[in-house]
Every structure is written in structure tokens, then in C-alpha cells.
Amino acid sequence: MAADPDPAGASGRCAWAGQTPLYLDYHDREWGMPVGDDVALFERISLEGFQSGLSWLTILRKREAFRAAFAGFDFRRVATFGEADVQRLLQDAGIVRHRGKIEAVINNAGRAVELCEEAGSLAAFVWRYEEDPQAPRPAGPRAESPQSRALSKALKQRGWKFVGPTTMYALMQAVGMVNDHAPGCPAHATSEAARRAFRRPA
């Protein structure tokens, strides 16, 4: 989910968090917090791909079903999925039944295995594209950045699918590679502190 860094809403939180409990919990506990675990990163990449054209709330509501369907997003296991698994997933009403997106996750799982061999870990590769917190930021909301475009290009060159610049910027926002909480949002300081303490994958 690419969220605009809007001014804080009436609650002090980012305006996009709204009042839905699932959204609020995701905003308060997860969005913008650094993620360095490979499986967790693969899950986020996959879910951001599934979100394309849909609301993020739809994806959050189906998250546990996605985890069950895709072996907890253990990409080494997902990489072994075949056509029978595709058919199984297309019949799973708990997830988004979109053949292209399902096949993209399976394809990307194989590419993630290759990327681990190349870079040491998925996290080590992805975090190369972290936004410099000291760099000047353009005014107003944005849907992508130079870093997200570079990450998208690098992944596409390696055969990944559903990893466009907007999707990758949403990933960067979600996993703490950029802090897009509104300055007045309580989670902004929490995210910033976590980013400072986070040990970047080597």
C-alpha cells in the first residue's frame, strides 16, 4: 500500500489510518518499522503485488489466508509450487484468486532463492535501496521515488514480476526503508527510533 505522507488526522495519526481497527493496528504496530527478515520481506513484496488494483484493507483481511495458502511465505517452499498448486490457489476463496498474481509469487520465490545466492540474503539486496534520511525530500505526497524505481528495475532485470516502482515504494514505506509517517503522528518518532537502531543487513 502506497500511503501519502498526509498531515496527521484528528487522532494525531496519519490521516490514512482512519478508524478501522485493523488499519489502526497495522499503522501503529507495523507500518514503517524496519524489517530485515527474508521471509517477512518476501511476504510484504508478495502482498504488495496482490494489493495492486485493490484496497490494502482487503489484503489485511485476507493476510492469514494468504499465509496459509503460501506456506507462510517461505520462499524456498513456494519456489517448488507447480501447476497443481496454482489450481489449488485459484480455488481458495480466502485469497485474491488472480492467476497472474499467484504465478508471480511462485516465480518471485524462485528469483528470491537466486537473489540469496547472489547477495547473501534478500534483505541485504533490498536494503541497498534504502532512502537516505538526510536527503532532501520533495514537497507533497509521492507514489514512487528514485530508489523505488532503481529497486524495481533491478528486480525486473532478475526476472521478478509485479514489482513496479509504485509497488516498491509502498514496500519501502511498509518495511521502514523510508519514514513516511506524518511529522505529527506518534508513530513517526517510533519509526525513526527503530530505523536508527536497526542493523542494516550486510
From TrEMBL:
Coiled coil: none annotated. InterPro entries: Adenine_glyco, DNA-3mA_glycosylase, DNA_glycosylase. Gene3D superfamilies: Hypothetical protein, domain 2. Signal peptide: none annotated. It comes from the Bacteria. Transmembrane segments: none annotated. Pfam families: Adenine_glyco. PANTHER family: DNA-3-METHYLADENINE GLYCOSYLASE 1, DNA-3-METHYLADENINE GLYCOSYLASE I. This is DNA-3-methyladenine glycosylase I. It comes from Pigmentiphaga soli.
